[in-house]
Design brief:
Radius of gyration of chain B: 17 Å
Order of helices and strands of chain A: HEHEHEEHEHEHEEH
Strand content of chain A: 15-25%
Strand content of chain B: 25-35%
Largest sheet of chain B: 9 strands, mixed
Low-confidence stretches of chain B: none
Strand order of the largest sheet of chain A: 6-1-7-8
Shape of chain B: globular
Number of helices of chain B: 7
Number of domains of chain B: 1
Largest interface: A-B, 32 and 27 residues
CATH class of chain B: Alpha Beta
Radius of gyration of chain A: 18 Å
Distance between the termini of chain B: 41 Å
Oligomer: heterodimer
Low-confidence stretches of chain A: 122-130, 225-246
Number of strands of chain A: 8
Chain lengths: 246, 228
Amino acid sequence: MNDKEADIKNIITRKLYSMEGFNQRKVLIISKYTERTRVNLLLLKFFLQERGKRGVFITIDRPHQYMSYLLKLHSVSQKNLIFLDTVSIISGESDFIYEQDNNVCFLNGPCKTDFLKDLATKGYIAGDIPKQEIDLKNVDFILIDDVAALKKYNSYKDLEDFLVSYMSAIANLKNIMAPIVLDVNKNKQLYKIITNNCDKILLVNLSKSLVKDIKSGERSDILSIQSLTPSILGVMIRNAEPDGGV
Amino acid sequence: MMNNGFERLCSGIEGVDSLIEGGFPYPSVILVAGPAGTGKTTFTQQFLFEGAENDEVGLYITTLSEPPKWVMHYMSNFKHLNKEHIGKKVLFRDIGNLVRNATAEELLDYIDEEVAGTMAQRVVIDPITVAKVFLGEAYRPFLFDLVNRLKNWRAVSILTGEVSVTETYPSEVAYAVDGVILLTYQEADGSRRKYIEVLKMRGTDHRTGKLSFAITKNNGIVVLSGNF
């Protein structure tokens, strides 16, 4: 890790620490899609390594072993992490499904969007391997690798229902921090749903070393690329073709 | 209606993005195929340096065509490639020895390690076709696994494919990848012109037909607007 990366990691870590204190658990993290994996890794490092928290990483975008590999590469212990892998079964990498990793629960695909209920239910599909019940009271954080990936497998209505019930469940659980990482440019409808239900919005641009709280008055401005001005972001935004990215 | 449009990465080659709805689907694996001298390596360098300009990490893996030193030597002549990115955002790896001696699984493990370790958003393997000679029957499953893994590492990857003048593209690779771009020569009026053609680009309304292109020191590959 170079100095620039260490600085940005420290800034994000401080923000996350402060959110714990203020009980802000449903946080939307806006990031470029090309930085999604890095942001997820950074969040997992914060929860698992910095804070020694217990959590669940739900994989919709790609099989769990990719993040598991990265965590190993970065010497992050996975003993307090459970993977809820929704996608291996359709990913052409089914060899992993029959590995008896203690910390992986496999689902039958990402079309079913009631993961919290799944987590609290005994007997996952994992080859023939039964998994233990997970008590959400013992979980400190839940992170979804790419919530926007659910668009590929679910209708808009189902996805909206899922997000509303997911965030409502998180609010009721009272002990779980649940960041949602999203690139706004391709996901404006999801952004609107999430902002109506989240406690805090953070804009993160790792390559520009930028972390910024988005205040309630600025939330709607984020939807317009043109309005992503230096005054809001603190940096110049390149209007990239075709999707842009913040 | 929910917008299901793909995230895309721009190619870095003037005139290519407009052929493919603005860029390569992210993630995806693209084959750039053509005979010697058509500009395959130049294409890949422009792709990687464009990513570096956008703060993305690019990983160039050379197999058995030429060592990175000579790739960089010839690329240094292109004025638009910012050399400050070399070793920082454009990383070079040589797996020539590994390709000669390793099994398919060892090759895949090495590529996994490099792509995961660098967290590259753009990857080039130049050329991939040489692995066929050493892997034999394991080549096709290797390609399938490689393509799947590269996409799951969340990168847009370009595999280059060498073909003889009588061959259009390496079919085993073309079946496995998400996109195929052909670079070809064609004789016209006593000289050979270079042409680019998008043969396949999954999930994309891509333009069909051959378009002429030039390679210049100032801009590298530039697709010309007419078909010539």
